[in-house]
Design a protein that fits this description.
The protein has 191 residues and is α+β, with helices and mostly antiparallel strands. Helices cover 34% and strands 31% of the residues. The chain has 6 helices and 9 strands; from the N terminus they run ααβαβααβαββββββ. The strands form 2 sheets. It has a 5-stranded antiparallel sheet. A hairpin with a 5-residue loop joins strand 4 and strand 5. The longest helix has 24 residues. The radius of gyration is 24 Å and the shape is flat.
Amino acid sequence: MLTDSSSYPKKKYFLYIFIAIVFLAAIGWINKDLVMRYYHYSKIHHFGTGDSVYARDKVFKDTSFKAITLYRLLRPLTDKDIDEANLDNGKKMLARQGLNNSSDLKIVSSGAVILLDNLRKNKNRLLGIFKDKVFITDIAHTGEKLTLLLYSTEPVKNILAEKYLIPGDVPPGYIYADKNYYIMYWDTSDK
């Protein structure tokens, strides 16, 4: 009985392609939050540096929403930060022992908010000017791992209340990454 040896390599390649597709689908499923946030940024609200960021229509029209919370970005403390700090050598050694060697970014409430009543009085949804975006993986209060998309913005000054809330605590081993305010993507619109 003769077998067609030319069909065997074709079946082998189809198997490899099928395995690759299943593998990529599994990676996409595991990282679905990141994929969804990236899709949202690239297709729905694609901002460029200097673009205007507006309040989402639902947030603007619904009077039960009083304010939009602004966040600050935190990064792990580094050796360079400790060296630049005005500390004696003993305190620097203690600080180095507690260093977090991860590159995990975190967010914390800045205490500042954008007051929506001020926006409504002016009949203008402009929140500020877009600077940059950041994706952060964090753990929700339910224990679920989430990927968040935040926009770094320069808020309009007349709608900003800087000491409206109590700022969140900076966890040990972290410092502010910059002086920017960050806003959750779901509160924003590009028009």
